[in-house]
Design a protein that fits this description.
globular, 5 helices
């Protein structure tokens, strides 16, 4: 496996963890268990997460975004299985689908400076 593929996979894995962390941190930081119940927190955490991923990532902003969304979705599904919540887990999935695009500007804006910084470090 070449270095670029390993870097992309590491970025995807980091974005999975970050996506789940948004929902894990919500009750600790805001009180409500569902991140979307603390609407300001959720939107800000998506934007900041996207920016962090964009700054840290070398390429493949689509993969970083997909990992962020998938990480949130996996956490919601885990919660639905581990704690019977009725059909409300569907609301969580819908919120992920409709609100996660807030992270896209962060991924895309952070991408340019991150790429420039990485290129400057890689240049002899």
């Amino acid at each position: 496996m070449n270095e670029e593929v390993r870097t992309d996979l590491a970025g995807f894995a980091a974005s999975l963890v970050l996506g789940a962390a948004i929902w894990l941190a919500s009750p600790v930081l805001t009180g409500p268990e569902e991140a979307f119940d603390a609407f300001g927190y959720y939107l800000l955490s998506l934007l900041v997460s996207g920016l962090l991923l964009g700054l840290a990532g070398r390429r493949a902003p689509g993969a970083l975004y997909a990992g962020l969304v998938l990480g949130q979705g996996l956490y919601i599904l885990y919660r639905a299985i581990s704690r019977p919540a009725g059909p409300l887990w569907l609301v969580g999935l819908m919120s992920i689908v409709f609100l996660s695009p807030v992270a896209l500007p962060g991924v895309l804006l952070g991408k340019k400076p991150g790429g420039a910084l990485r290129r400057a470090k890689d240049t002899p």
